[in-house]
Write a sequence for this structure.
């Protein structure tokens, strides 16, 4: 199977370039009878949209979603749900320079080598505009998970550049996250992060950061033992997002320094006599299967590659040149990354829920 | 598709439990005409085998591989290659205690909840013995990649507990790696690591660590733009290995602290006039597609969950109890993890090579 | 994977209902560098379009295709090609009766039982309008196969009701097929078929028939040994088309009556010294793999289920009732079925060509 | 995905050649908690086994199945079930002639062209011995379908050469089928068929025939609307069996001659007030989804290609030659084909049951 589909039972197939006719996706395998409207989806898309705050790109993009199929009288019918947003007002002229010059740390060079040609307008298929389809499909999955299973997916920004916020995966709320444009629930750190972004933007430079994402209320039993471990699929989902360089679940890279006796999560019985883990270094997954504890993981985003500072590079005709981005770009993608990370989380959980229900009859 | 297969064009399907009849896998999609023998495979399996040195478990396991199909007169025929190792000398009695007690940070509890029953002997399907199939299949992929494309996959241990070695991804050799039982090419650090493992084992405790893996000589163009980015598939491959908690490519989590101007890899022309990157924070992948630079990434392994120290836990009949592992287990899985990480790397690259060749006709 | 995708390497994902926003599909895995325009696709769609002749439904449907992505400056880029036709002028009111009444031999009852609800407007997803996406995607595959491999796919109507034409699979041409509205290259039989259709339509009844399809110039080697035999995938492709009840390749059901000595196709050497079969009861496939001979097969279509004659049926509230279709429907789908059968043939061959090229490097 | 796997949720991956180490398969996705033993599987295999009666080949083959994994204390665990039969007593010498000579209407030529080499011993992967894996896996699916859903799958031989038996799909029993070695429930026709086979075998020639297969008690709702129609998957399953040239469901090719008013199956209400069809030309599937009526279809098998009569052919070094099979082969594969057709039916139904349960939560 080619690589523009994701998921096995709840499967999305994505299409579209930055400056083609449209971007969108087809969801195949959605359970019938889910109430869904364009408004449900638009709400999540607006969190991803460029131009939503001072610290994101002021570029205007149309993110207005249409449901083309698979929904009848407000409910999913079980047939494919096609979601599409037209591309409007795309000023290709702004990108003329990209036609012949390989932007450093972008996909221009590798696309051209792989395919022999590339749609250079706005990066074509490598544009982050592609994530619109992920967020749209994720909104459908998320609604199902919330309504049918009570699953709550909440992500936030926990690091920008060198500024790190300590955030407990079990307690921060979406309201706290949405309270600041940087989407960091620690208000003090949030202010510092915003100031840092402002400063770096003024230098014509950019910043990276980390998204912490959590899924609370996930039932025990989702995921499969070997290759399709729940966290392996989360890893793929996250690392497939533009600009992501790393993924860690639970204790992650820092857990490496602990001894087994410190790292293991002892089982205990809670007040209701149910099995619980007294710590959660595992991050909510044991042996690839959800344990009923909060799932939490961190996703590392590199600093935005498109910067206004001048950089050395080469052209497709193999000449040395320099490049400095024109126009205004995101100095830091982190706030817009939160809904994308959440959406991919919803897609993975939804897929594994349907798979689990199919195999075992549970749910 | 259920979760015991990996890869789309070079596809392995794995089977087997720790104490069932056999473990093995079926490789489907292997190119015809590759010369392969059981010896080629056994060589890699011996690096994964328990009991190979003082710092691994002294447990004896039969890792003798048989090729059951798909090879005729020493060459692959293009039909499925079934690889199998019988399970011998399995002393289930040693595991009686696991029957009713959930080992902390193991899969006993989640398997039982998911499936309603579990093969408790040696952890069943959750046993690391499953990785034998990965290494066996990886040996086939690796041979193809080396012989047909000149790809060289070399991994090593770069961290054990709190001990970190600085290793340049471009230069360390397999000979250096194999020179010490800990598989760390930095001889001084290797000694310290071994001492640390010895000490912690004597405490009845365990250690985690990090594997650094590199693939050199990978041609430009492997990987796909959106979901099946080359490093997304590497992330899934690695995080699907038992005990893995994190994955990072190139600059990874530490790259987050750099600014864009520091992190970007400028393009330049080399002596032959070919396009190269003058730095490699990307880790050899741009926009999901191999760039021709060395691919390198790090994989975090948690400390071994099975320890001799006493731990709190509960039974399947919901009673509190304690557990202390009997017998001898790996105090640190890192040295045995290196061939597993390398094998999964080979499977991902092989799969993407065949996919690329199919779509574009290149190669 | 849910069931709205077809193909493994050249993979289409279809969406859309008769009266929703649009119908279309996403092609994933198309080789880059293929020149394709909307005109190339429209040409095939016009052969499938309702209202193209006196013997098809006079219903007007918009089949105007848009390429939304994956094509840049007239060439495929290797990224997903989204194709879409808006649904216009749909008069749902015509279908009000279908809301509560199960049309005999239609999918109304089974959809409602499976999903708990159904989009009853025009049959929703079960409408033959879905085949628009197949023909559109098939046009892309077909162009590649013709230009790069010299493959020629030609189908025709060989039977309508009880009228059968004897047609040699190796020689009839597309020009002959397109010369009559019934798409039967035997002119005499064609006239009889048209008269028969006229008569049966006037009775308010309908007819079935058989499409004979051929693929000439297919290189030796496409297809796989066991489950994905080339003709097994053709069988699935054809039987997945609305109204199809049977598939046979080569000698088919009538070959059953021959003895082995009569049925076997002896090998011989042609003038160039190449291996050829002196007869072709096989239908161009041996052991699941194309042999280089003409591939030919027959597809049985049942008489159109929608008829103006009154029929007994029941309602969704479990009451007996009768139903007589209003408006004008196809009295015989055969002429419009030809381009659909050809399109599915192109999709199967294209998929197997890319798979073969990936595994073996041939091509 | 390469072509040696079948099914999406209940997925089998098959391996093995006629004269390699073993043949077998891995079942992935089986529900946990199904009681299964080697005896359950062996019973079906014995119906497929060579040498079971006077009208099949007297060749001895070991069909003794081993369960290598996925079953613990007599129950499936939800992890992969590996099934294997060793190849014993294979006398490769008998096949020396096949090394250089292409058997007419066999896969020797196409395999060699596709892969560049072939395992010529007994036909390698193209041998009918491959169907052993299908029957073994089918036995597991069948047991689940029977025990959990009450589905009854019964096939029979309805035609041998020119001899046709009229058999009602709703009433014939397995006991009647197993009562004669030809597996035709019409005793009079059965005798004639056996005499015909005896006569043709004595001529050194072979016969084809038709298997009629039925599935009774299949719940409404299995199958998907577009590409994965239930009968499309049945078509693929059947046509993928060695020697199959055609598939038809319900009225099939003969239904083509009826008018719509004759062919349509009116809905009615049965005594319980349930919706039923008063005729079943559909063959139990409407719009790709099971309707609750008996599913029945016919599968055409060509006459066995291996015959003792002398035939013209060529060698791999492109010389003309003749070939007459030595040893004893099946003069007619039909009786042994019945369990294979039934097994494939079970695999398709099982897969669609799990898919349906996953998407809708029904079942």
């Amino acid at each position: 199977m080619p690589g523009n589909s994701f998921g096995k039972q709840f499967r999305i197939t994505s299409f579209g370039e930055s400056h083609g006719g449209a971007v969108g996706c087809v969801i195949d395998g959605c359970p019938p009878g889910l109430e869904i409207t364009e408004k449900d989806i638009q709400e999540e898309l607006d969190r991803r949209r460029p131009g939503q705050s001072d610290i994101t790109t002021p570029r205007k993009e149309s993110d207005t979603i249409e449901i083309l199929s698979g929904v009848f009288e407000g409910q999913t019918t079980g047939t494919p749900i096609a979601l599409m947003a037209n591309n409007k007002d795309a000023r290709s002229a702004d990108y003329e320079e990209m036609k012949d010059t390989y932007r450093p740390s972008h996909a221009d060079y590798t696309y051209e080598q792989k395919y022999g040609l590339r749609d250079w307008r706005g990066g074509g298929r490598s544009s982050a505009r592609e994530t619109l389809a992920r967020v749209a499909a994720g909104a459908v999955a998320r609604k199902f998970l919330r309504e049918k299973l009570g699953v709550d997916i909440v992500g936030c920004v926990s690091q920008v550049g060198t500024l790190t916020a300590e955030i407990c995966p079990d307690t921060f709320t979406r309201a706290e996250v949405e309270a600041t444009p940087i989407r960091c629930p620690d208000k003090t750190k949030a202010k510092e992060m915003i100031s840092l972004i402002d400063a770096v933007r003024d230098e014509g430079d950019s910043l990276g950061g980390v998204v912490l994402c959590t899924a609370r209320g996930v039932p025990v039993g989702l995921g499969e033992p070997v290759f399709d471990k729940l966290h392996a699929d989360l890893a793929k989902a996250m690392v497939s997002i533009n600009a992501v360089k790393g993924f860690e679940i639970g204790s992650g890279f820092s857990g490496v320094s602990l001894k087994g006796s410190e790292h293991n999560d002892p089982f205990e019985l809670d007040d209701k006599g149910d099995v619980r883990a007294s710590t959660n270094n595992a991050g909510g997954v044991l042996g690839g299967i959800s344990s009923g504890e909060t799932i939490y993981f961190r996703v590392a985003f590199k600093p935005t590659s498109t910067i206004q500072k001048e950089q050395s590079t080469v052209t497709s005709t193999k000449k040395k040149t320099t490049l400095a981005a024109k126009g205004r770009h995101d100095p830091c993608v982190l706030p817009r990354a939160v809904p994308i990370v959440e959406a991919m989380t919803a897609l993975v959980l939804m897929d594994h829920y349907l798979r689990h229900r199919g195999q075992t009859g549970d749910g």
